[in-house]
Amino acid sequence: MSAGTIKKAKALAKDGVVMIDDDLFQVKSSSDQSKSYMVTSDSCDCQGFKNFYKFHHGKGLKANCSHIEAVKIFKEMSEKKSTK
Ligand SMILES: [Zn+2]
User: Which domain holds residue 51?
Assistant: First the structure.
């Protein structure tokens, strides 16, 4: 995970994530505000996520992208809020 991805994810977590269900989130694309992706804690329908499996298929690696990372940060932020 590059520093650029984490920076992007943090910005998205602040104002680009909408919670749809317990483990389903809508995350805005950071490059195109009119686009958004459906994201769970371990999957995303963006091109980067799909490409990861295409290139690393069968190697047991877990795909990641700025959207999944944004959801992770979003959850951490809301947990902190609810537990004080
Ligand atoms: Zn993604």
Answer: 3-82
